[in-house]
Automatic annotation (TrEMBL):
Site feature: Lowers pKa of active site Tyr: K27
Matching PANTHER family: ALDO/KETO REDUCTASE
Active site residues per record: Y2 (proton donor)
Name assigned to this protein: NADP-dependent oxidoreductase domain-containing protein
InterPro entries xrefs: AKR (IPR020471), Aldo/ket_reductase_CS (IPR018170), NAD(P)_OxRdtase_dom_sf (IPR036812), NADP_OxRdtase_dom (IPR023210)
Binding site for substrate: H59
GO molecular function: oxidoreductase activity
Cleavable signal peptide: none
Amino acid sequence: MYNNEDTLAAGIKASGKPRSELYITTKLKGLEPAQTATEALKVSLRKLNMDYVDLFLIHSPSPANKEGKLKALWDEMEEIHSQGLAKSIGVSNFRVEDLNVILDGAKVIPAVNQIELHPYVWKAAQPIYELCKERGIVVASYGGQTPIVRAVGGPLDAVLPAIRERLEKTRGEPITSGQVLSKWILQKGAILVTTTSKASRIKEFLDTKNVPNLTEEEVHVIEEAGEKLHKRVYMRHVF
């Protein structure tokens, strides 16, 4: 979907890492006329030079949902799983109503629902979050840096510095506002999904595990500030 499967395959080959040490995820964006999800995945597998992926996601409930074919698409995803072409299957950008369509009679519960998640959409996203929690679906967060990248000047600008300062004193090392936001996401029980082309950002992202936990009060302050602005960037027409 992101036109990087060929280059990823080349990078993996150059790394010399065995397949058993890698976790590879790819997505089903959409289908060509008369194409099946299985055929689409096999195209990806050829590009990746792999026999299977660890996680295969439906990128969006549309257009299958509009055509009344979402349940049938999930049935095919289950077949992909049973064939061993994907160790786990999941979804992305699914609302409560979309999840309910595929959960009704599902043989395999989605392993993951990847959604836009940060403090500025937390209140709106809670129904999705709670359903996923109830059904054992892991929430994966993308767009988690939105408050400091795409919503500069928002309510969180006033509260993040003090939290960052407290964490720096506790740790004894510098901490970024991005790491504070990442820590909030992790403490909500979600998985972090991020992209970058800079090695320094990758190091910062990986270093988040070493950042001390936020206090309950700090989590509350972040969410209280987040409720003052609804800023959805990616999940259009979802919430």
